[in-house]
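Need a sequence for this fold. Nothing fancy.
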C-alpha cells in the first residue's frame, strides 16, 4: 500500500541536497520564462548534454519570443537539425505567435494559460510556471514519477494517468514558499542523477533514503512498475545518395507523419525502385548500412551512391542542394547521419 505521507519529509533534505549538488545549467542560471520554455521543449526525450549546444545557438539567433515567432521555417528547422522530433520546434513557434497575438510577446504567469499553448502539456506548464514564475505547480515527468513511486512504495503502473494526477496533487502542497523553482528542479535532478532509471539507484547518496519505501525494501529497482514494451516496427529501406554538379538530390517529406515536411535523402521500402523512376546509372555503388530508431519504428537502411554527369529536371517537392545549402539552409534529419560523409562539403 502506497504511503504518500512519506513525501512530507522530503522538501528540507531535498533542497539542501540540490543546492550542494545541482548541475550548473544555463537555464538555471538565468531562469527567465522564454529561456526556461525553450530548455524544457528541447529536453523532451533528449539528454542534457545533447541539448546544451543547441540551446546556446538557438538563443543567440532567436533571443526572444517575437524573434521566434517571426523566424522563417528553414531557419527554425536548421537550428533544430539533429535534435529530432521536429514537431516540437514547430509547436514552439506556433505558441510564440499566439503569445505575441494574445500576451504582447511575453509568456503569461498563469498555469492554465501556459498549458493552453501549442506543444505545452501539464508537465511543461508546471515546469515553466514553477521555475520561471515561482508558482507551486509540480512538473511530473518520468524522473519525478520514479522518485515518488520509490519513496511512497506506489505500485501503480507508471503509465497510468491516475498516478500522474495523484503525484501532482500530493506534491503541490509541499512546495516551499519562495523556492518553487528549486523544488521542481531538485525533484528532476534527484531522478536524473541519483534515483536512476537504468542500473542501480545511488541510494547511499539520496537525501530521501531514511524514509524511502523502495530503499527499505532492499529492492529499489522493482519500482516504478513499468508496462510491457510494445515491439517496435522494423522497416527495411533503400536510401540513395544521388550526386550531380548541382549538389545532392533531396526530397521533401509529406506535411504530416514521420519527419513531416523535412528534406530527406530519397528512399523507398526494400524491393521498390527509385522514387522518380530513374534507371540505376553505371557505376552505382553500395555505401553501407545504417540503422535509425524512432519512437515506434526502426529504419534499417542500405545506402547506394549514384553520380550523375549533369543535374536533371525535378518535379515539385524535389531539389538539388549544394554544400552551401546543406551548411546554412537545409535541415537534414539525423536518420541520415551515416551517409553525410558522401554529401557535398564546403
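Here you go.
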Amino acid at each position: 500500500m502506497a504511503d504518500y505521507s512519506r513525501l512530507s519529509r522530503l522538501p528540507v533534505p531535498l533542497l539542501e541536497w540540490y543546492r550542494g549538488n545541482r548541475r550548473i545549467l544555463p537555464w538555471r542560471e538565468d531562469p527567465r520564462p522564454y529561456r526556461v520554455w525553450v530548455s524544457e521543449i528541447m529536453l523532451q526525450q533528449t539528454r542534457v548534454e545533447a541539448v546544451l549546444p543547441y540551446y546556446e545557438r538557438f538563443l543567440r539567433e532567436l533571443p526572444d519570443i517575437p524573434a521566434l515567432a517571426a523566424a522563417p521555417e528553414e531557419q527554425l528547422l536548421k537550428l533544430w537539425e539533429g535534435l529530432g522530433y521536429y514537431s516540437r520546434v514547430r509547436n514552439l513557434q506556433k505558441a510564440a505567435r499566439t503569445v505575441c497575438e494574445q500576451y504582447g510577446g511575453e509568456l503569461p504567469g498563469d498555469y492554465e494559460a501556459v498549458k493552453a499553448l501549442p506543444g505545452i502539456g501539464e508537465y511543461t506548464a508546471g515546469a515553466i510556471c514553477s521555475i520561471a514564475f515561482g508558482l507551486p505547480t509540480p512538473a511530473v515527468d518520468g524522473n519525478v514519477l520514479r522518485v515518488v513511486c520509490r519513496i511512497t512504495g506506489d505500485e501503480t503502473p507508471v503509465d497510468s494517468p491516475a498516478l500522474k494526477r495523484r503525484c501532482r496533487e500530493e506534491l503541490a502542497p509541499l512546495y516551499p514558499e519562495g523556492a518553487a523553482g528549486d523544488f521542481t528542479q531538485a525533484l528532476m535532478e534527484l531522478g536524473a542523477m541519483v534515483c536512476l532509471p537504468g542500473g542501480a539507484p545511488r541510494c547511499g547518496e539520496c537525501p530521501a533514503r531514511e524514509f524511502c519505501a523502495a530503499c527499505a525494501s532492499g529492492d529499489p529497482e522493482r519500482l516504478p512498475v513499468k508496462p510491457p514494451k510494445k515491439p517496435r516496427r522494423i522497416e527495411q529501406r533503400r536510401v540513395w545518395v544521388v550526386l550531380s554538379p548541382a549538389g545532392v538530390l533531396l526530397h521533401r517529406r509529406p506535411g504530416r507523419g514521420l519527419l513531416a515536411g523535412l528534406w530527406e535523402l530519397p528512399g523507398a521500402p526494400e524491393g521498390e525502385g527509385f522514387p522518380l523512376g530513374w534507371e540505376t546509372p553505371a557505376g552505382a555503388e553500395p555505401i553501407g548500412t545504417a540503422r535509425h530508431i524512432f519512437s515506434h519504428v526502426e529504419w534499417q537502411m542500405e545506402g547506394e551512391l549514384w553520380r550523375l554527369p549533369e543535374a536533371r529536371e525535378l518535379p515539385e517537392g524535389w531539389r538539388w542542394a549544394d554544400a552551401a545549402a546543406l551548411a546554412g539552409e537545409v535541415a537534414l534529419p539525423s536518420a541520415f547521419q551515416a551517409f553525410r560523409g558522401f554529401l557535398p562539403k564546403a
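For context: The chain is about 40% helix and 15% strand.
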